[in-house]
Amino acid sequence: MTDRTPVSLSEAEIAAVRSWVIHEDEAVIAFNKPAGLSSQGGRVQAHTLDDLLWAFARSNGKRPDLVHRLDRDTSGVILAAKTKPAAGFLGKAMQARRFKKTYLALLSAAPEPRSGTIETPLLRQEIGRESYMRAVSADTPGAQAALSRYRTLSATDDGALVELDPATGRMHQLRVHMASIGRPLAGDARYGGALTFAGRAAPRLMLHAAKLTFPHPEGGYRTVEAPPPEDFEALKVAAGL
User: Fold this and answer.
1) What is the DSSP letter of 2?
2) Which family does it belong to (predicted)?
C-alpha cells in the first residue's frame, strides 16, 4: 500500500516479523509486537515495526501501513491495514473512537479504589529531545481531555495485575493517569515506576496491549488478542497474581 523506498531486511528480520502475526485477512494484519521495538520513527538506529512491514510487500510494491502506534516498551496487539481503502476506513474509525483497547499492567500495589475512572486532563511537554505528558487542571492552556478506566484483576502483598481501558488516545495516557493516582506502572522510570517488582528486576515498562476490538472494513467488529510476553508473565507469577 505504501510506495516509500523499500527497506532491505535480513532473513532473520523477515522470519521474526512473520512470527508475530496473530491475525490476517484481506484487509488487515495484526501483530503481537515485542517490547523494545519502536512502532515508527524513533532515534535508535534500528529497524522499526513500520520498516519490517516491507516483509509483506506485494509484487506491485505496495505494503501494509500501521493504523496506530504502541510505545517502544509496550508489547501487544498492533494493527496494520493492507489496502488503501482499509487504511482510510480504519483511520476514520480510530478518530471516531470506535476502537476498544484493553491493556494489562503490573503495579506495585492495587489502586484505591480497586476500580474506577480517571478523567484528569493531560499536557504534552518537550524536555530536551524527549516528549512527556503531565497531569494538569482543566483550565491549563493546551490541556487535552483524557479518560481512562481501570480494574484490578488480582492483588497480593507483592503487587497487582490491573486491566486498563483508554477511552481516549493521548500519548502515554495510561502511564500518566495511573501515576497521577499514586500507582505508576512497574518499570516505568519516566513516570515514577519502580524498577523492581515482587523482588525481581522490572527493567522495562510492564504494559501489554492484550486485546483490540475494532470495526472491520468488510463489516462487523473483530477482536484480536495477544498473550503477554515471558518477562511480563514471569513477574506476574513471582507476585502470585
Assistant:
1) -
2) Belongs to the pseudouridine synthase RluA family.
Residue 54: all three cell numbers together: 516491507
Q: Where are the beta strands (DSSP E) in the chain?
A: 21-24, 28-33, 65-66, 75-81, 100-107, 115-118, 122-127, 130-135, 148-156, 159-166, 196-197, 200-201, 207-215, 221-225
Averaged pLDDT, 166-183: 96
Q: Tell me the sheet residues that pair with 80.
A: 29, 66
* CB-side neighbour CA atoms (13 Å) of 26: 4
Q: Which of 181, 183, 176 is nearest to 135 (CA)?
A: 176
71 is catalytic: yes
Sort 11 into a burial class: Cβ within 10 Å, 0-12 / 13-18 / 19+.
exposed
Q: Does this model's pTM top 0.70?
A: yes
What are φ and ψ of residue 163, in 5° steps? -95, 135
